[in-house]
Structure prediction request, 268 residues.
Amino acid sequence: MKNSSILDEIVAYKLDEVARAKKQVSQSDLENQASSQESVRGFTKALSEQILASQPAVIAEIKKASPSKGIIRENFNPKTHAVDYQSSGATCLSVLTDTKYFSGGNEYLIEAKLACDIPVIRKDFIIDSYQIAESRALGADCILLIASILDDNSLESLNIYAKAFDLDVLLEVHNEEELDRAMIISDCLIGINNRNLHTFETDLETSIKLAEKIPADRFVITESGIHTRADVQRMMEHNIFGFLVGESFMAAENPGEKLKEIMFGEYS
Prediction:
C-alpha cells in the first residue's frame, strides 16, 4: 500500500474517531480540562535556544510502531524512555498517540510528560479543533499540523485555536508547494519531512533544498531519515539545527545512548 493511500485511510479513520470521541466527552468539557492544566512548557522556546546557539535541538520521539516498519520496539515503556531521553540531552519529546496505526496512546503522552521536565509534542493526525483541546487536556505543550491533510483555512483556524491554549505548533511540509502554504501561517515551527509520501523513501536533500527558502526568523526542524552522526553534521552544515528523530533511537538497544551517539558524537 502506498503511503498516500495510508494517509487517506488514516484521515478517514480520524474523522470517525473524533466523531465517536465527541459523543463520549464534549469539546467544552475538554476545553475546561485544558484550562485547568499547569502552564505549558515552552516547546518553541526550548528548541530556539539551542538552534540560535547553533547546537542540535533534539525532539526525541517515543514511538512503538509505524505502518511501514511494524513494531519498532518490543520493550516499550514511555516513562523509561522519557527519563532516558532527557538525561541523554533531548531538548523536547514527541509522543505518538495514534492507537490504530502507530500503537500509540493518549496515556503514553500523560506518562511521558509526568516522567520528565522537558516540553512534549503530541504526534497525531489532527483534523479537528476537538483534538487540539484534547491535546492540551492531556498535557501536551505543542501539536503537529500536517499540511498535506489540511486545507489553508483549516491550517489557519487550527493554528489560531491552538494558540488560544498557549500551544506551540509544528507545521509539517513535504515539498515546496506545502512550504509556500505553510509560510502564510504565522508563529509556528516548520517541520520538513524527508520521507516521500509515495515511495516511503527518505532523502535528506528535501530538508536542504526547502530550508534554503525559509527566512532566518522561522525555526526549521528536519524530520525522518536521520540515522547517523554524519547525517546530523550534514544538516548542521546547511544551518539546520532542529531534529525530530524516532526510529533510529527506538530501534536501538539503548535509545538514550543512540541519541548521544547520533546527535552529539558521544560514544559509550
